[in-house]
Specification:
- This protein is α/β, with parallel strands linked by helices and 344 residues long.
- The chain contains twelve helices and twelve strands.
- The two termini are 34 Å apart.
- One of its GO terms (biological process) is amino acid metabolic process.
- NAD(+) binds at residues 177-182.
- Keywords: NAD, Nucleotide-binding, Oxidoreductase.
Length: 344
Amino acid sequence: MAVFNHVSFDEHEQVVFCHDKESGLKAIVAIHNTNLGPAVGGCRMWNYPSDDEALTDVLRLSRGMTYKNALAGLSMGGGKSVIIADPKTQDREALFRAFGRFIDSIGGRYYSAEDVGTTTADIMIAHQETPYMMGLEGQSGDPSPFTALGTYLGIKAAVKHQRGLDSLKGLKISVQGVGHVGYYLCKHLHEEGAELIVTDIHQASLDKVAAEFGAIVVAPQDIYTQDVDVYAPCALGATLNDTTLPLLKATIVAGCANNQLAEVRHGEMLKDMGILYAPDYVINAGGIINVSFEKDYDAAKSTAKVEEIYNTLLKIFTQAEAQNRTTGAVADEMAKTIIDAAKK
C-alpha cells in the first residue's frame, strides 16, 4: 500500500494506522495540515471494500477539511479518520473506546467528531478515553442541522448568482441522500416552496421525506437524469464522474456530500457544460463551524457564522466567472492563501 506516492497524498503531515485485536478496530487517521491550528475532522465508519479505498477516502477527506476550515475562517487545521467496519455493527462500546485511546495517543494534534456512519453517542464513548473529541452531547451536539443550513444557503447563493432569484419557490431540486443532513436540507427546501425529487439506499429515510415534504422518490440510478434546476449530492463522494455527468439536466450542482468530484477534471467538465458548481468543502462547512463553538456553546453565534457561507460562495462564483476559471480552482486558491499566510 503506497502512502507517500499515493495520488491523494498532498503533503500530509501524519498518517496513522490503528489496529486493536480485542475490539476488532481497524482505523486510519490522516492529519493534512495544522498551520491554522490542531487538525479537526469527523470520523467516518464505512465497510470499505479494501484498505486502499479507505486510505484514499481519508486522504481526500482530510485535505478537504484543511480547505474547509480555512475558508470558514476557523482556527483549525484539517484532519479526518475512518473506521473500516459495517456502520450497522452493534458492538460499539469496545470499538469506540479503542478508537478513543488511539486518538489520545496522537496527543492533541487531531480532534475527531461524528461523520457518516457514526453518531454523537459513539463520540461520547470515545470521549471517555480522550479529551480530543468534539461535537459532544450537551455542548455543540449533532452538527447535521447546521451542515444542512449551510447547504441550503449555498443553494440559494447559487440560484441568486445564476438566475438572480432570491427565492427557491417553484424550483425543482433533486437530493441524493436523505439521511441526517439530507433530511434537514429537504425540510429547508420544502419550507421555501421547492419541489423535491429524492433517492436513498434506506427506504425508511425515503418514506419520511416523502410523507413530510411531499417528495417524489426515484431509484438511485435515476437521480441523475431528473429534469431539475438543482442537483444536490448529499450521500458519499465521487458521484460526479464520467458516467454521471453526461446524464445531468440540472444547471446547478450544490450539495453537502464530501469529495463530490471523482477527479479535478470533472470540475472543468461541469464548467464546460454550463453547470454552476458549489465547491463541496465550502457549502458543507456548517457542521464544523458549529463544532468550532464547542467551548461556551452559543447556537445564535454559530448560526450567524454558518450564514457567512452564502457570501463566501457568491464571492467564489463571481471571481470564477470573471476569470473564466472553475469554482473549485478559485476556492482552492483562496484556501491556500489563508493556509500559507498562517504558516508565515
